[in-house]
Amino acid sequence: MLSELRAKRVAKAAEVAASLIKLDAANPLYQTLLGVVDVAQRDYAGAESAFRAALARNPEFGVAARDLAQLYLATGRADDAKNVYRELLSKKAGDVTALLGLADIAMRKRSGPRRLITSTARARPRRTIRHLGSSWSISTSCARTGVTPGRWRGSSSSNFRRM
Question: Which pTM was predicted?
C-alpha cells in the first residue's frame, strides 16, 4: 500500500487499505494505514476517524497518535495536536514520539531555537551535532533551518552546509 502511495496511485492504495480493513477491522495498524490514504485523498475527516479508531483499539500506538497530531497541525489545530501527545504521555510516560512531537510544536511557535541552531551550526558544526544528539533532531533542525548534513573533507564526522 505504501508503495502505491509513493507511486501516486492513491486509488489503488485506497483499495488495498479497504481490503486490509476487511481482513481485520480491529487492527490499529490497518486503521492507521487507512488514515494515511485518507490524508493522501484529502479526506481529513475520514483520516481523523481512522486515526481515532486506531487509538481506540490501542491507546499507546505512537504511530497513530503522531499521524493524528500531524493531521491536526496541518489543518491548523495545534492545541488538538498537543492534546493528542499529552494523552499519549498520560498512558505511556516518557514516550519518545510524544515528547518529540511536543518539542516540534514548541519549535514551530518560536523562532529563537531555530536561530540558535542555525547560527551554531554555521559557526561550530561539530559541536552542534554533539549537542543536538539524535539524528532525528539533526534532520528536523536541518529541515527547518535550511542547513543540510554534509561531510568534512577527509573526516568521518558530519558538518552542515547551506542548501
Answer: 0.65
